[in-house]
Amino acid sequence: MKYNPPLIEKKWQKKWNDLNIFKAKIDYNKPKYYVLEMFPYPSGSIHMGHVRNYTLGDLIARYKRAQGFNVLHPMGWDAFGLPAENAAIENKTLPSKWTYSNIQVMKNQLKQMGLSYDWEREFATCSPDYYKFEQKMFLDFYKAGIAYKKETVVNWDPVEQTVLANEQVVDGRGWRSGVEVEKKKMKGWFLKISDFAEDLLNEIDNLNEWPDRVKVMQRNWIGKSRGATLNFSINNSKDIIKIFTTRPDTIFGATFIAISPEHQLSLEISENDNKAKEFLKFCEKQSNKEVDLEKGDKFGYETGLTVSHPLKKGVNLKIYIANFVLMDYGTGAIFGCPAHDQRDYDFAKKYSLEIISVIENDDILPYTGDGLHINSDFLDGLNTQQAIGVSIQELRKLGIGKETITYRIRDWGVSRQRYWGCPIPIVFCQSCGEVPVPENQLPICLPEDINFNLKGNPLVSHPTWKNTKCPKCNDNAFRETDTFDTFFESSWYFARFTDLNPSKAFTNEAFKYWMPVDQYIGGVEHAVMHLLYSRFFMRALKFVKTIDLKEPFNSLQTQGMVCHQTFKTEKEKWLFPDQVTKENDKFFHIDTKEKVIAGRIEKMSKSKKNVVDPQQIIQTYGADTARFFMLSDSPPNRDMEWSISGIEGSWRFLNKLWNFVNSLEIQETNKKLPDNLSQLHKELLAGLNTTIKEVTKSIDNFHFNIAVASIRSLFNALSSYKILNNDDKSVILHSTKKLLILINPMVPHIAEALWENLDENNMIAIENWPSVDNTFEVNNKIKIPVQINGKMRAVIEVQKDLDKDNLEKIALEEENILKFLNKAPKKVIIIPNRIVNFVI
RNA sequence: GCGAGCGUGGCGGAAUGGUAGACGCACUGGACUUAAAAUCCAGAGUCCGAUAAGGACGUGGGGGUUCAAGUCCCCCCGCUCGUACCA
To answer: Which of residues 659-688 of A touch strand B (CB under 7 A)?
Structure first.
């Protein structure tokens, strides 16, 4: 009987399904375990990134089940988003139709992978049954003052008459129209994440099972900084400019003032100053991406206004409008100290402004480090920390400034000028203004009869949808046509999985039982936004008393990307891996035979064609082989390289496993370990025990590749063992069964099939994880390296825990040691069970 | 630009400060076969040496701490991710 993946995989998937093995139910007799992988956007078909993510999650789910946990392992669809609209325009279809048909396809593909989901909890976020709850949440936020409207700047495509996402802006131009993108001011809805910044920051310290790098990134994103606000009075005017600085100690080095183009003062100036107006227009054309702002050239406009330096009598500083000053951070105005800030330095050089050094240093300017202050009056001789304190004190005394804490994090703009998202439940009335939709009128559903041939947002151009009556005065009114950012849906979906209650977003009992998610797994690209928004969302829901939980994810693991070698023809055309053949270490096009250049190993991407379709892999090798390779290659948090030889190696191993287990003869008398174990038996069982320990530890630590290596080692020991008698058979059978339980979470179909072939009645899916049994530890001999000056010269085999004196004595009997030990050692370092080192 | 991470044989990767390269892939030799594939057995970091014994070198580069550094510290280089309207 040959290993036939399609046959056994279908069979066991059906059995799991028919017997409802993975259905999750509240059970207070068992500890619960909620394992969740980031749900996918239904883009069309699954890719290797999904395969990796869901294989990792499924391994954990099956492992925890075997350990006796009551496991919740759900799956759903992050179904709103831009690609559906693009597809709708391109293929003349509806976003809903496109999305739901993609879900169909992808669900089938996931099912073929044999993932142990409770499919009864599946949902798509684009269904009103889901999004109606977030309309209610938004209303709660609105009433609690967490949601508010303010002006925001968006990318505007004047030809398409539409707002563009950052990714739709290519080199400053609209991706479809190709015309220069403008910045446009619009009103949009925001959530006050900044109100929760302090708590979001503090609680990071308690996220013990999150990767440090994610925590550091979130801390930096929140960006708490202590500094000072300080007022400069504008000469010949009653007005003042309030600036924020983290370095009030450098005040004596200030040589100019710069304000954001969006600053109130900039707008006032531009009203009577055409050149200023032009400059603001120019700034509007610039990208509003953080990268471009920081990397781009610094431009300024000299307003002609000056302020007087508050601490240097008679010194005036020019006010510039500058493109690198952000309105969203601090007060939208800074003082420039070119000697000690890179951006200020660049700006000062460009506009020939004075550069005054106020911190002693030997480096070239700008110098941003610590040091003793000079040219700074009462700050002279102080270091940075001291000078910051003293300068703030002085500013307070003068009544022109004070210590201020600011955060880099900006409020979350949740408005999107798009059709395929959750409608925002607000109505605009001529007389009543903005009015929240009463809860009994929810959900506000998206219209299906839309026309993507018209310009702009189909919700705006729809003939009737936005027309409604004001809930307050019943006069004619308009609906909000913005929809939510899709991060809105993904900020609470994990809690919705705990119960699909049709009338409430969450059922108290289920929420309390299952939440928080014990193990969350997903791409590292979500390190900040999705994960921070979700943390915020829980707090916001707690604030409006919907739930009582702050942190949604107890343990987090981030996975790396799946990469593949790239191939190009000599004419620089990308090729798919299956268009390339290898002969004598050289690559050729499989049809045309032309030379192919093998490029770098890069993240799989459609544009570079270095993709492998999981569907094809599963068809050729089966899901188990794909899963096994995913786990055996790299540790999950690192990038992995997909390769044909790698997948074939996994395929070979599963075949070997299949043939080996099926070659075992099963008799009743073999089902128990023999009473008297030989030395070889003991060694084998000790090896088994080591593997159980190692696999358990490796899975707990998310080092699945080590777990795989360890299982392979055990398999090598079992399959090379010469079976001579009945006792041998019993020991091998015993060990093989344990091996199957260990490997089951990785390759569940073949494990079930072999388990059945071993005459077992229960499914391996419900077997208990093997426990560690140290009684077989027989190895009391240990190998210890002997070094001379830290260089390995010999290895001695000794009793475990042998004392220092004996270790030294035995080491000195080694020929190679004597050879190198040509004089008396200055020092001998001996650590029992570890090392002997002679220093000469 | 800023923030974060990563860098070990031909390749993926192992390694509580203590034998660098576990496990696998690719490779080489052998067995089986009319032959190939598959499978099985054996070998292998590089260099010197005889294909041995043994030795030198070796974890992106440079410096440092230590009896001992892939691991800790400093500087540099390269690549990847995020950067707020992609998900």
So the answer is: none
Tokens representing residue A432 in the block: 């009543």
**pLDDT tens for each residue of A547-596:** 999 999 999 999 988 888 788 777 777 788 878 777 666 777 877 777 77
ipTM of the complex, rounded to two decimals: 0.93
Q: Which domains does chain A have, with CATH numbers?
A: 30-127+194-218+486-561 (3.40.50.620), 148-191 (no CATH), 224-407 (3.90.740.10), 656-776 (1.10.730.10), 781-839 (3.10.20.590)
Residue A193: nearest nucleotide (C-alpha to C1'): B84
What totals of helices (H) and strands (E) does chain A contain, helices first? 26, 33
Q: Any atom of strand B under 7 A from CB of A656?
A: yes
Nearest nucleic acid nucleotide to A659, CA to C1' distance: B39
In sequence order, what are the residues at sequence separation of 6 or more whose Cβ sits closer than 8 angstroms to the Cβ of residue A571? none
**Direct distance between the N- and C-terminal alpha carbons of chain A, in angstroms, rounded to an integer:** 64
Strand B neighbours among A 575-614, CB < 7 A: 602-603
User: Rounded CA gap, A438 and A441, in Å?
Assistant: 6
A638 CA, B6 C1': Å apart: 8
Query: Nucleotides of chain B within 7 Å of a protein C-beta?
Result: 1-6, 11-16, 18-20, 22-26, 38-41, 54-56, 67-69, 80-87
Query: pLDDT (tens digit, 9 = 90+) per residue, A254-268?
Result: 999 999 988 999 999
Instruction: Specify burial of residue A55 (Cβ count, 10 A radius: 0-12, 13-18, 19+).
Output: buried
Any strand B atom closer than 7 Å to A825 CB: no
Q: Which of residues 519-548 of A touch strand B (CB under 7 A)?
A: 524-530
